[in-house]
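We treat protein structure as text, and this decision shapes the records that our systems exchange. Because each token names a local backbone shape, the row as a whole describes the fold. An entry from our holdings is shown next, in its original layout:
>
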Amino acid sequence: MHFIRALRRIDTLLDRVSRLTSGIGRELAVIAIIMMMLLVSVNTLARALPFTSSLFFVEEYVGYLFVALSFMGLADTFRTKGHIRVELLIQRLPNQAAALLEFVVTLVAMGIIVILAWHAMELFTKSLSSGERAQTMTRTPLWVPRLFLVPGYTLLLIELMAHLSRSILRLLPSTTTTLAKGG
């Protein structure tokens, strides 16, 4: 009984942390959208006014902001069940089998995200140390758009850990009815 109580405390803590971190990611994604909108609006206005021309850096920087938006929003999208999921098989399984499958799939997803985060960190540190720059007029250092990869993966990993915790609790027979009731 103490073990289950400890697991519930861990689950509650992970849920609070993941709610906070995915919310931070969501807010950063919103800021990226607003910045994209402002850049495109200013560029459109610049083209419409006489004696002005398009701002040459807008398309490039909107692309970088799109990377930030995508990666910062990963965790919140997972939390709100916004990622595409095929539940045809899970819906047909008994509760315990579905919980076990969810546990295994979440573990596999966590492994994949750790590998992706590792490679993203290598990419970021190499571009930072080498001074690699974009092949554009602005010659933007490529560590700038790559800056958002590892934090985005980290936020998603935290969310997956909270999901894994819930999956573990659903696997335990004495907690299944409590969780189904919302406890």
Observations:
- The CA atoms of residues 120 and 150 lie 6 Å apart.
- DSSP finds eight helices and no strands in the chain.
- The chain has a mean pLDDT of 91.
